[in-house]
Amino acid sequence: MSPKTLYDKIWDAHVAHEADDGTCLLYIDRHLVHEVTSPQAFEGLRMAGRKVHAPDKTIAVPDHNVPTTLDRANAKTMTEDSRIQVEALDKNAKDFGIHYYPVSDIRQGIVHIVGPEQGWTLPGMTVVCGDSHTATHGAFGALAHGIGTSEVEHVLATQTLIQKKSKNMKVEITGKLRPGVTAKDITLSVIGATGTAGGTGYVIEYCGEAIRDLSMEGRMTVCNMAIEGGARAGLIAPDEKTYEYVKGRPHAPTGDQWEAALAWWKTLYSDDDAHWDKVVTLKGEDIAPVVTWGTSPEDVLPITAKVPSPEDFQGGKVGAAQRSLDYMGLTPGMPLSDVTIDTVFIGSCTNGRIEDLRAAAEVLKGKKIKVKRAMVVPGSGLVRAQAEEEGLAEIFKEAGFEWRLAGCSMCLAMNPDQLAPGERCASTSNRNFEGRQGYKGRTHLMSPAMAAAAAVTGKLTDVREMM
Ligand SMILES: CC(C)[C@H](C(=O)O)[C@@H](O)C(=O)O
Ligand code: SF4
């Protein structure tokens, strides 16, 4: 047998049919659904008089539109459009008999946090969702990627997806990370090195000692941003940490089924002499705590650097850099650590898990914020409950943070949590596009520890100075 990558193995195990031109019909193990990209898909089923083919493998949760304030049960806190989408999901979940975590359920949260938390996401699976950050689930060694609304309808109706295979890309992070450097710094640094198109046409497998050393939470952070690097999906081979995380979760297999699953999971790694179409290697010790300065996730620099000048770039990037700097209101040559921050947002499917909250609380312990506003939005109701149990919520509140309910929140301006024009935010989310967090809002992406450090000083700050 010819050697295979992890991606090849999962792909081959799910091909139901292959056409002459290489187009395949893939079997889908898990279909995650949220309120934004599903209403028309369910409507399509309804009009065709169809059922959901595999309701047991279909899991829905509202996350993008839901307010995160404590009074969110009051429908008036939502815009009309948001309310309609959430109500449609309530009704569709009921009518089609799929698994559902409504706003009132403590398990509700961001779909990419809820899936792994509940044990829906398992190694070797194909996982899809009408959402680009489905890549997150790749941390379990699952082939996970976003799909469009018409594909959502196709998967609902058939539990299959029409796909062409991507190429194989290996991103290796060798050695150890230095103190203060986290999974978020890895994933941003990779995008800084490859650009937002570096992964186009590929599925990335992240490997190397620094990746192995990450917790499951950290691995999810890395895979989450594979999409910002242009890739179809990101993957990490499962290992003992993966099995440990999965074991005992509500929907994880048990007994004989667990043993059978484990036997298959242990075959899920890239063979030594497998073929890679592209390889990128970064040294763990070369990665610094980073922040973004511009309006693309590839605009990444170590916190110790200065705001770049358009002349530092070439070709079309000169104009793009100028536009970014104008939008961000930054002057070339200014130390990044002099940039003052108005708002801090800790949350999102990139960094809204318990480990992220612990890292931020560690920096904030006994300190007060200097920014105008700061909020922590746990990725799920269960993360929130655990953080309360561990005393993290108290640390945040005493520091001056708002302690919110779960949702996508200020990651994107689709709910009441938004930046005002010109407001500058230190954010643990994944996208810094123009207007992403609110009209004319300015976003700097970074790790939870770095965001907490910025909250304390009121400026972009090197967290290593606070350790
Ligand atoms: C709303 C949804 C379709 C979108 C996505 O696909 O990623 C959102 O989650 C985002 O992060 O921009
Ligand atoms: S938290 Fe942000 S990135 Fe993640 S699904 Fe929600 S809007 Fe998309």
TrEMBL record:
HAMAP family: LeuC_type1. One of its GO terms (molecular function) is 3-isopropylmalate dehydratase activity. Heterodimer of LeuC and LeuD. It catalyses: (2R,3S)-3-isopropylmalate = (2S)-2-isopropylmalate. [4Fe-4S] cluster binds at residues 349, 408, 411. Its EC number is 4.2.1.33. Pathway: Amino-acid biosynthesis; L-leucine biosynthesis; L-leucine from 3-methyl-2-oxobutanoate: step 2/4. Catalyzes the isomerization between 2-isopropylmalate and 3-isopropylmalate, via the formation of 2-isopropylmaleate. Keywords: 4Fe-4S, Amino-acid biosynthesis, Branched-chain amino acid biosynthesis, Iron, Iron-sulfur, Leucine biosynthesis, Lyase, Metal-binding. Its cofactor is [4Fe-4S] cluster. Binds 1 [4Fe-4S] cluster per subunit. InterPro entries: 3-IsopropMal_deHydase_lsu (IPR004430), Acnase/IPM_dHydase_lsu_aba_1/3 (IPR015931), Acoase/IPM_deHydtase_lsu_aba (IPR001030), Aconitase_4Fe-4S_BS (IPR018136), Aconitase_4Fe-4S_dom (IPR036008), IPM_dehydratase_rel_enz (IPR050067), IPMI_cat (IPR033941). It holds the Pfam family Aconitase. Belongs to the aconitase/IPM isomerase family. LeuC type 1 subfamily. PANTHER family: 3-ISOPROPYLMALATE DEHYDRATASE (PTHR43822:SF9), HOMOACONITASE, MITOCHONDRIAL-RELATED (PTHR43822). The gene is leuC. It is an enzyme of class 4 (lyase). PROSITE patterns: ACONITASE_1, ACONITASE_2. This is 3-isopropylmalate dehydratase large subunit. Gene3D superfamilies: Aconitase, domain 3. The keyword Lyase applies. The keyword Nucleotide-binding does not apply. Residues 8-458 form the Aconitase/3-isopropylmalate dehydratase large subunit alpha/beta/alpha domain.
